[in-house]
Amino acid sequence: MADANRPLSPHLSIYRPQLTSITSILTRITGNALLVGALLIVWWFLAASTSPEHFATADGVLTSWFGDLVMFLSVWALWYHSLAGLRHLYWDTGRGMDVDTAEKLGWACIGGSVLLTLITVVVV
Q: In a designed cystine with 74, which of 18, 25, 37, 39 is the match (CB 3.0 to 4.6 A)?
């Protein structure tokens, strides 16, 4: 560490997050959140196969307000993650890489996932 006069990297306080970076991070978060939702469903099935007491506990958690919230957010995460995957498949063809199109696709993923979530919850 002989050179102490090196420039420092810019800190997050001067970096303006872009829609494409936010949607990329959100894709990673929703992928991990889907794992948590899937584990809750697996717990529910395992509890159903073991005993009525275990099932009552698991069912009580999943049908509580917290369970409803987790399942609602899991539906949104599934739609968002799916739409983001389609966006990446589109990008893999070499199209839509300019800034304007990438931002439009980001807003389409966000808005589309919210709309599809509401349709899914209302219909199902």
A: 37
46-79 pLDDT, tens digit per residue, is 999 999 999 999 999 999 999 999 999 999 999 9
User: What dihedral do alpha carbons 103, 21, 95, 93 form, nearest 10°?
Assistant: -150
Contact 117, 111 (CB under 8 A): no
Residues 6+ apart with CB under 8 A from 47: 54, 55, 57, 58, 59
The b/e string for 83-103 (b: 16+ C-beta within 10 A; e otherwise) is: bbeebeeeeeeeeeeeeeebe
Structure tokens at 11: 């800190």
Cα four-point dihedral sign 97, 98, 100, 101: negative
